[in-house]
Design goal:
The chain is of the alpha/beta class. The chain contains 6 helices and 9 strands; from the N terminus they run αββααβαβββαβαββ. The strands form 2 sheets. It has a 7-stranded mixed β-sheet, with helices on both faces. A two-stranded antiparallel ribbon has the order 1-2. Helix 5 links the parallel strand 6 and strand 7.
């Protein structure tokens, strides 16, 4: 079976589902950072939907297996459902991948942790995938990468559902990270499965 063809089909299905569930809408939308966009993507609408969460996890898990990652980490809140879905599906499929959530800032009490999850089960230098629903400038992903690396783990791949192609993915690659997305936006605001 051709894995690239299978991945392309999965991404196409996820794109259709995102539109059906209202996670991806087209029109004119004002952006938080200023300016406007011809589309709006809210990954949580997709990943908190039972079918959407399953499909995203099903698409990401082979990428995680391929790079040998022992855990998937992501910034709260966008990555929380992705991390959970991947971790649960990995158990079902017999390739357990621990789920780690990176806090916006370390807890000020208790263990004062920047990363939540079963970190005790991971060895120093363990390979970890960092994921988020969207990559725009990459700020959330870079925050998560820094937390993961500061904890002594090795980031072996960075994933997102949608690459908005607004500098984040290029910067990730420039810094030497392997980056992959399921969907990609072009300058015209068209969303397609990534190559």
């Amino acid at each position: 079976m051709d894995n690239s063809n299978s991945a392309g089909r999965q991404a196409s299905d996820i794109l259709e589902l995102a539109i059906d569930k209202g996670a991806l809408a087209f029109g004119e939308f004002r952006l938080t950072a200023g300016g406007t966009s011809s589309y709006y993507f809210d990954g949580r609408i997709l990943t908190l939907d039972p079918e959407g969460g399953y499909r995203v996890a099903k698409a990401f898990l082979p990428m995680i297996r391929e790079c040998g990652a022992q855990a998937i980490a992501g910034p709260t809140l966008g990555a929380d459902p992705i991390v959970s879905a991947v971790s649960v599906l990995s158990h079902i499929e017999g390739y357990p991948v621990a789920g780690l959530i990176v806090r916006g800032e370390a807890k000020g009490h208790g263990g004062k942790r920047a990363i939540e999850g079963p970190t005790d089960t991971l060895d120093a230098g363990a390979p970890v995938v960092v994921a988020d629903d969207t990559c725009t400038t990459g700020g959330s992903l870079f925050h998560a990468i820094e937390a993961v690396e500061s904890a002594g783990y090795r980031v072996v791949k960075v994933l997102s559902i949608l690459d908005r192609n607004e500098g984040g993915s290029a910067e990730l690659r420039r810094r030497g990270y392997s980056y992959q997305s399921l969907l990609s936006a072009n300058e015209q605001g068209e969303i397609n499965p990534s190559n």
